[in-house]
Structure formats: C-alpha cells, structure tokens
C-alpha cells in the first residue's frame, strides 16, 4: 500500500501544462515536495541533495528545476518498467546504454537527464541502436 501512496504523491509534482510547471519552478518548490521526491525515489536525503547540488535550506528556482527533472525521470521510468520499485532500481544502477553510468548520476545535468530520458524512450519502444 505504501507504493500506491508514494506514486500518488509523486503525481503531485507533475504540472498539467508547461506554463504551470514554469510558474511553479520560478516560484520555488516547497521543501515538502523535495521530501516527496526523496520518498518516491527512495534515497537518503543526503544522497539526493548531493545529486541536486543543494542543501537542506529553501528550494530556489534552479533547485526546483532539478527536483522536477528527477521527478520527471522517475515518472518516465515508472511508466516504462511498470512499477516504481523497478524504476528506482533502474535509476540507481549502471546502465550499458549510458556507457555504464548510473542514470541518477548522469541526470545531475540537464544534458545528462535528456540522455537518460532518451534511453528510457528507446527501451520503451524497443529501439536499441
């Protein structure tokens, strides 16, 4: 049952329209939204904060963008693999399609996150080349 609750909370980080997402990022997310991502991705706060290059203080817009980036990747991985546990495992382990990099580490930059997203799309549509 915890999985369903975590998945429901993860969906609260989604925006219905890009303009809503941009407004939320510009305004800055609440700390509770970071905690929701932490629980969803199942990483200790210190590890997640290191990946986001942030401290436990307030979430500034650039940090909010990073939180949304990881939330988006977790959602995409969950859709591709069918459940949140498999998505978490995939995001935390080295992937050959990323040259052996761990997706969460790769996603520390926007360029890397796009590569992770692209790999998920290739897996989803069975395109391996």
Q: Overview of this structure, please?
A:
Mean pLDDT is 82; it is low at 5-11. The protein has helices spanning 2-11, 18-27, 31-41, 45-52, 61-81, 84-92, 103-106, 110-124. It is built from eight helices and no strands. The longest helix has 21 residues, at 61-81. It is mostly helical. The radius of gyration is 14 Å and the shape is globular. Helix 1 (2-11) packs across helix 3 (31-41), helix 5 packs across helix 6 and helix 5 (61-81) packs parallel to helix 8.
Sum up the structure in keywords.
single chain; 129 residues; mainly alpha; 68% helix
**Element-by-element helix/strand order:** HHHHHHHH
How many strand elements?
0
How many angstroms separate the termini?
38 Å
Helices and strands: which structural class? mainly alpha
Q: What percentage of residues falls in helices of 4 or more residues?
A: 55-70%
Taken from the alpha-carbon principal axes, the silhouette is globular
Mean pLDDT across all residues, rounded? 82
Stretches where pLDDT falls below 50 for ≥5 residues? 5-11
Percent in strands = under 5%
Q: Count of helices?
A: 8
Rg (CA only)? 14 Å
Largest sheet: none
């Amino acid at each position: 049952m915890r999985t369903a609750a975590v998945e429901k909370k993860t969906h609260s980080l989604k925006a219905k329209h890009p303009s809503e997402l941009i407004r939320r990022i510009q305004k800055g997310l609440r700390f509770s939204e970071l905690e929701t991502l932490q629980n969803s991705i199942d990483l200790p706060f210190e590890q997640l904060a290191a990946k986001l290059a942030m401290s436990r203080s307030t979430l500034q817009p650039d940090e909010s963008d990073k939180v949304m980036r990881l939330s988006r990747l977790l959602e995409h991985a969950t859709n591709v693999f069918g459940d949140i546990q498999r998505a978490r495992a995939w995001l935390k382990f080295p992937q050959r399609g990323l040259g052996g990099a761990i997706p969460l580490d790769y996603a520390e930059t926007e360029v890397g996150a796009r590569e992770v997203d692209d790999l998920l799309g290739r897996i989803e549509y069975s395109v391996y080349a």
